[in-house]
Amino acid sequence: MEVDGTRASCLSMEEKEFANDVVKSFLINGIPLNKLRGPLRGWLAKLAGKRLPNGKDLPAMCIPNLLFEEEELQRIELRDQDLSIVYDATPRQGELMVVVARLVKEDQDKKTARIQHILFYISTLADSLNAASLSAEVSTALSQRQILDRNVPAAAMDRCFTNSASAEEMNAAAGVTNSLQRLTVYCFSHMINNAGEKAEFVLLSYMWGLLQKVFSLSNATKEVFLRVTKKAFPSYSSTRWFSKYDVLEIIAGLFPDLLTVMIEVAQRKIAPENSHKLLNLLLDPIKSRMLKIQLSAYVEALFPLRNLCYYLESDATDLGFVMADKIADFKALLPDGSMMNLPSSKRLILEVTVVIDLF
Hints:
This protein is an alpha/beta fold. It contains 14 helices and 7 strands.
């Protein structure tokens, strides 16, 4: 490795520290290191009056030092701290596993506190994980930061068989007694997300499937939707149920326009099989009324759940302190497990009842 014709090994200690500071500053501020391959490197070196390795060699020279420095700082910060750990991985190969420390930090006045998260372990998985290998990965993470089992009273994770079994494995490996077992906390957000996924109506689910087939695979149908409704067809991600909610909330408000959209889509023979199925569904007077009721009930009933999920997925620093209150507030909306009042949906049901009575 050379620096402007000089070997990097000939750099003074002061110049090596300067190189580390430059790379560290770029990383902290999210600036790509390849920016140092251009004239910026020469300008920084001239401004500081110090030599810098070329931009291609800088990362190889500095990042190992910075990583070691960061690991040492983490060991000092986490030593003898009572903390919980949060870990997540995937059973598939070629993915990452991460372990995060969660601890409460008091402010200087000792009157307020905040929850701090420290990512201290990342591992690329070469093989599929089972409970034993996941437990071993977490134990490795703790030992690398010299975190003792007795300082980790709780562990949080997604609820799945592998995670649950790994928690039992770690308790057994730590040799803790039943009365002192590490508290296992399953992710509230994922459990509530699963609850949202269970909410469905048969006819609405059928329409939802047709919507995805008609609009997700065709730009032409999206163009018709945009022209008729003056709104872009909403994007959808299957990762979280409330993405489906967000789409159906928009569709509910544009329900009268959806028929106009589908008439044109069917006439233009775009996605003909599924577009005709969706059009026939909307043209059927009884099924169309039922869809309006089911859409209204879905949006109205799940609105508080959607908002709760958004909050639990947020980066709010006070989340751990107020999460229980947020969940309790939601539970209060469902006294004794009964459904909350749905005035808009009731009004639609009454309108249908009046129509039926007229016949």
